[in-house]
Design brief:
Elements lengths: L1 H34 L8 H11 L22 H29 L5 H25 L4 H11 L3 H16 L1
Helix pairs in contact: 1-3, 3-4, 4-5
Amino acid sequence: MRGAVICFVIATLALGLFQERVKISINFNLKSASLIDDYHSLDAESRMRAIQKSKIGRPYDYYYSHDSVDLLYRLNVRELSVLKWLGSILFAFGHLCLGLWLLKTLRLKFGKWLVQGYVLLFGSAAVAYIVGVILGVDFYLLARRIVGFLQSPLPVIVLLVIRKIDSNDE
């Protein structure tokens, strides 16, 4: 049991660090693209040079203190936005898989609850965002917070805490 928890923590940390690297790179390129005239008409090499120039004078800005992933310079703003959303879905799925693996390894029968929670929360985030777009209200931050919760080990930890509390009541 202890070995499974250690493996889960290591895998979660590795996924989280990779996730952070990808998100920072995508957000950095999106933010930089909005500051560069004719970004859409530049080739990858020109985009990289233009973005590197924009870093000057911002050594302590978190986005600007990291290097971007070279592949991202080839993508236009629309493709970067799609990749950002696709990444959110894939990272949430990665954390779901890690959570399911932990529950299975610990022989806990909560996998169904975890999947249902992910579906419910991800669906809620999508509905909130879409309703916000339709009503002209900015629900992006709410949707982002919900999806951010799903892109972490917190959902499975919540289930484990509930199980522990429930087992203490018996």
